[in-house]
Amino acid sequence: MTATLSARTVGSPAGLSRRLSTYLYRRPTLALVLLLTPPLLYLGVIYLGSLAALLVQSFFSLDGFTGQVVRKLTLATYRDLLTRANLDIIMRTTVMAAVVTVTAAILAFPVSFYMARYAAPRTKAFLYLAVLLPLWSSYLVRVYSWKLILAKEGILNWSVTRLGLEDALQWLLGLPGIGGPSLSVSLLGMFLVYVYVWLPYMILPIEAALERVPESYLEASGDLGARPQQTFRRVILPLVFPGVVAGSIFTFSLTLGDFIVPYALGNSALFIGQAVLAHQGTAGNIPLAAAFTVVPMLIMAVYLAAAKRLGAFDAL
Amino acid sequence: MRKRVGTAAVLAALLTLVPSAGVVTGQAGMKQSIGKGEGALSIIAWAGYVERGETDKNYDWVTAFEKQTGCKVSVKTAATSDEMVALMNEGGFDLVTASGDASNRLISGKRVQEVNTKLVTSWKNVDPRLQNAPWHTVNGKHYGVPYQWGPNVLMYNTNVFKTPPKSWDVVFTEQTLPDGKSNKGRVQAYDGPIYVADAALYLMSHKPEVGIKDPYALDRKQFDAALNLLRQQRKIVQRYWHDAFIQVDDFINEGVVASSSWPFQVNLLQSKKQPIASTIPAEGATGWADTTMLHAESRHPNCAYMWLEHSISPKLQGDLAAWFGSVPAVPAGCKNNALLGPEGCETNGFKNFDKIKYWKTPVANCGGGRECVPYYEWVTNYIAVIGGR
């Protein structure tokens, strides 16, 4: 028994595999099809299939009373999506994502610039660690600790009062739209937390892009009489722009889809991620949740198209 | 070539979707006898409703049941009524502790089956005020066994209110509180569409000309009046609560001093030595009365019936009332319970039964030829109010 088995595994498979490889070598198309089918099936069925399922769900509707999905194609769900309250949710989320992205880019650029051009190897390693360190702890823990930091009885409020700046904080919280009773229940506090949690995703791609700018270009620019400001605007920025866009795709899409931060902080006004969760998980309104999910997909498509027009992907 | 592959993928995806369309519903007739246990039982419940001594070993009404019947209990907690309905629609569960704003939806959606009360031997001990309650009895058929009930109380900070607030006014209109500061940004409201009924209840006393008789059956004009009140409330609400523990945190760390709440949070805050008390103001209060209901396609009906009987045993009822701050559906549960104490039922509102308007699902056809605003409009409009519309 053992003998025959081993004879087989040693003998014929070697011949078989050789014949097989010869056969495939002569037919490159077949080889390609065999190699590509499994990943394409995965991409097509699991990845695109689930997207298609989502899209189809969004054309179903919900029986308002029993809460059961009516599986008949209709545009009613999209009509529900376009009510003013839902447009508010979409608008609120998009504006927040845009503001967070711009702020993160402005904060990240100097840090990345220092890391890429000036920091000594040791300092650089330390800075890398400092940027990445928060990502090693749970995102939930960080968000909830921010809730405590920003609370009315929290440490930030306490320090501000100690410094005699409570009037400034009160003025800030009194601003219409972004203010609130305390930082943790205002859009302002939410914005601070978003910038905090997504900043590393902006710093790393910008830093990588800055590292690729050859020193000689900057020297050449200086030799040709450009002032530092001109060098920055005409040489560095265009070369680093793809990195900024890469980072912005992270921060923008992550903010668009997030539901944990608005759950713990802010003034209870819904964001897209929460609306999806509420309609899908809580109200059982899967069609509306699906329609809501289509929104960030569309926004991201527009965003990427705009980035492409600006030449962000030319270097790819 | 590429195009054809794309089309094929989409077609394949569509084909996999379509067969799942028809869902089998319903089951013929109710059970006539209880057989041997199936060894398992899954329950959808409010947090804290089915305890096995994991949080506090004194509160355990599962372990003994499992030992006695051999039915291994698994619990899926849900945070809102809508979530319970969604889970029941998904299926795969045996029982649900549904409140009145979910129970009728489950009945008309045929997600639950009629319960044979003859098989639940302790049925006669159930509080007579609950036995034929409309949230589980439809056309004389019982679709569940009452579990617990309780009021949505007004929770307040005793450092700010030296005497209990007499009206829900303190959370609905901007005013100066007894400590000399405005209530703006210091009150909360419940983050569920059913809260529209709280506004309607308030209007019953304060604006009788709107003519609200039942806060769950509002015509267009009454509904709009309630929404207007809620929009006004939005300006003073610090945050809408949906997570009991976040509300507890907000009362400790965020300077919140008054809110609609459950006795559960009141007990929790008092156990943390916080200056907190609760009251039912003059307008009355909304409340919940929960029913354990049996899924139409339950796979463990024998274990489920054994649990239904167990669920109304006085010991369980008293322990649960002490734990959750609710009132037993079986009055015998109030007596001789060490955890609840002699005054427990009184504290949790046993005598307030008539002051409470119990959660039920708002429907379009609300009787008497009136046309009312249905529940899904409560949902969309309440989301809009919270968003500042």
Can you walk me through this structure?
- Chain A: Residues 90-307 form the ABC transmembrane type-1 domain.
- Chain A: This is ABC transporter permease.
- Chain A: Belongs to the binding-protein-dependent transport system permease family. CysTW subfamily.
- The complex is a heterodimer of chains A (316) and B (389).
- Chain A is mainly alpha-helical and 316 residues long.
- Chain A is 77% helix and 1% strand.
- Chain A contains 15 helices and two strands.
- Chain A has helices spanning 2-10, 12-26, 28-57, 76-81, 84-118, 121-136, 139-150, 155-162, 166-174, 187-211, 215-223, 228-257, 260-264, 272-282, 286-309; strands at residues 61-62, 69-70.
- Chain A has a two-stranded antiparallel ribbon with strand order 1-2.
- In chain A, a hairpin with a 6-residue loop joins strand 1 and strand 2 (69-70).
- The longest helix of chain A is centred in the first third of the chain and has 35 residues, at 84-118.
- The termini of chain A are far apart.
- The model of chain A is unreliable at 1-11 (pLDDT under 50).
- Chain B is α/β, with parallel strands linked by helices and 389 residues long.
- Helices cover 34% and strands 18% of the residues of chain B.
- Chain B has helices at 2-17, 63-69, 81-90, 100-108, 128-131, 169-172, 196-206, 220-234, 244-253, 263-271, 301-311, 314-324, 344-348, 375-386; strands at 40-46, 72-78, 95-98, 112-113, 137-138, 141-142, 145-151, 153-157, 187-190, 237-241, 258-261, 276-279, 285-295, 327-328, 356-358.
- In chain B, helix 8 (220-234) runs parallel beside helix 14 (375-386).
- The radius of gyration of chain B is 23 Å and the shape is globular.
- The termini of chain B are far apart.
- The model of chain B is unreliable at 1-28 (pLDDT under 50).
- At the A-B interface, helix 3, helix 5 and helix 14 of A face helix 1, helix 3, strand 10, helix 9 and helix 14 of B.
